[in-house]
Each structure stands twice: as structure tokens, then as C-alpha cells.
Description:
Elements: H1 15-22, H2 25-34, H3 37-54, H4 56-59, E1 80-84, E2 90-103, E3 108-132, E4 136-145, H5 164-200, H6 202-217, H7 220-229, H8 237-267, H9 271-278, H10 283-291, H11 296-319, H12 331-335, H13 341-346, H14 352-374
Amino acid sequence: MSDVAAPTAPETVAPAARHFAEAGQWTLIFRRFRRHRLAYASLFVVLGIYLVALLAEFVAPFSPDSYNARFTYGPPQTLRFFGTDAAGETHFMYVNGYRMSFDPVALKRTFVVDEKSVHPVVFFAKGEPYKLLGLIPWDRHLIGPADPAQPMYLWGADRLGRDVLSRTIHGARISMSIGLVGVAVSLFLGLLLGGISGYYGGWIDEVVQRSIDFLKSIPTIPLWMGLAAAVPANLDPLLVYLWITIILSLIGWTDLARVVRGRFLSLRTEDFVLAARLDGCSRQRVIWRHMVPSFTSHIVASVTLAIPSMILAETALSFLGIGLKEPVVSWGVLLKDAQSILALTTAPWLLAPGVAVVVAVLALNFLGDGIRDAADPYA
Length: 379
């Protein structure tokens, strides 16, 4: 009798193991990513931020330019539930009004919450008209005061009496989209130049790598300032947004190009690449049909981790006054109001856009870390 064991029949393999072996690459990546709880939760946070930015006109109680000079630097009002007004009517949601007092010593007015003043707050409140998604005319907001003439500053008011919450929501559209657009341009440049550098090598590799070394050797902030100063001051705000995006993209492609070059150097001697070349495939087909798809997950992780850098760069440029400017509303533009110590001591809630930046950047970083860890599902 032979001592050699008979091969295991396919039917005897455990169903879970067989299902794992038959699953595709993206299925395995998603399974491992879902086990990363912090990254999985961050995915919903990021999707929520982009959804709020997309529907900013509906979600924000007011337009970003709506102001009331009577409530300059008005403190945040607490959203309360089940309150009764002076007429004896009960409201599900409400905020207390302000009572202003003047300090003759400091020569400034202060706001005190008036507990007796009840301003009802409702869902789908009627307010300023707008176009939802730029197409559908509407005048309803997700939440707002039942009487549009009454103040409702859940995150306080700025120096012109504008709602900080509404401006922060509208600022998310610019700050978050500039990261996507900038990374898209950087992705194209990084894949193109990094792929050419890693695949062809030789003097082409030397030229591309020395160009990257030159760009990375220049101090970032002075380079941003010099490029931003070249943008004419009288340009349309949309063109300024376009120029700032291009400036950030021209600087942000270098790291991705290095990653792509390293992957190409390791893949160009693999058996499947050599087989494709011997089969008569053109160089473009070998690159785009065989090499790039093999490390798409790594590219996705790199792109996800690059978006926070773009957001912080735009915020820094706008905060320094060399990026986006009024009337464009972005988180960096909003943080300019918090530059002085006097403004911070008077209205510390002006730092709310900075909190939004921290939340968005942390969520994107956690998401990128989770994707990077899940990129190799066989590990």
C-alpha cells in the first residue's frame, strides 16, 4: 500500500477557504478594509462632508453673504428642545434670543442670552431662494428659524454679523473640491512622468528624477508665495480658484511620481510583463493594461493620503492672504478673521472652520491608512 496521500478533492475544501480563493482583488481589499474600524468610520465621515458640501445651499441655514450688523460677534446660541414662548405655545426646537448691554468702561457691547425670549426653529424652513445643485430653484433649508427675521447663530456670528455655521458649510465646497481637483491633476502627472521614468530608465529617468529633486529642494511656502503672487489680483474668483489648483498640482505630483517609479522598476522584470512584451504588446498597452492595474490599490491609497495635503495647502495660502480671497468662501478665507488676538478673545468661535479642517484631514488620513493597509489582502 502506498504511503502517498491522495490529493484533496475540491469538495473537501472548506467553503470559506474556497470562497476566499475565488474572490477578486477588490473584494478582498474591501473585506480587509471593513475590519479596520477607524478607517471604515472615517469613510462615512468623508462621504458625509462631501455630501454636505454638495448640498451646501440646502444644509446651511443662510447664504454665506447674508448678514445682520445688529449681531456683530454674536455668541453661539444653543439649540434647545421643547420650550414655551410668551404666548404659551410649545415648540419642539428653539433658540433663546439675545439681550444686548453696553460696557461704558471697555466701550463695547456684549450679548447676553435672554432665557425669556424663545425663537422657534423648524426643519425645512423657508429662507433665501437658491438653486439646488445649481439647477433646481428652491427656498427651503434643512433647518432654520421659523421667522427669518429672528437671529439664529448656532456657531456664532463674525465681524459683519454673518452666520459662521453657514459660511463653514459653504466653505467646505471649495476646500474639499480643491483637494480632489488638485489630486486629479497630480495623479495624471505622477502616473505619466513616474511611469515613463520607471519603465524606460536611462537618461529619461535621470531627467525626471533630477527635476523632482529640484522641486523638492525649494522651500514650499516661499514657492507657493511666489507662484501665487504671479496671479493677477483683478482676476475673477473662479479663475483664481483654477490658478491655485494648478499651483498646488504642479508641486504635489512629485511624491506620487516617486511611488509610481518604484513600482514600475519592480514590475518591469516580472514574468507577466515579459510575457506581454514577447506576445507583441505595445509599450503603451503593457503600461496601461498590465502594469498600472497591478498596483491600482496602492495608487488609490496614495491619492487618498494626498488630498489632506492639498486641503492644508489651500488653507495655508488663503490664511496668509496669497490664496483665495473674498468673496470666495473657503475654510482658509474664513480663518483669516481669526488672525488677531483681539478677534480670538472677543469671538473664539471664529476658529470653527479650523475645527472643520482638523476633522476633514484626520478622517482622510485615517481613510488613507486603512486603504493602504488593505491594499495587500494576501498579507
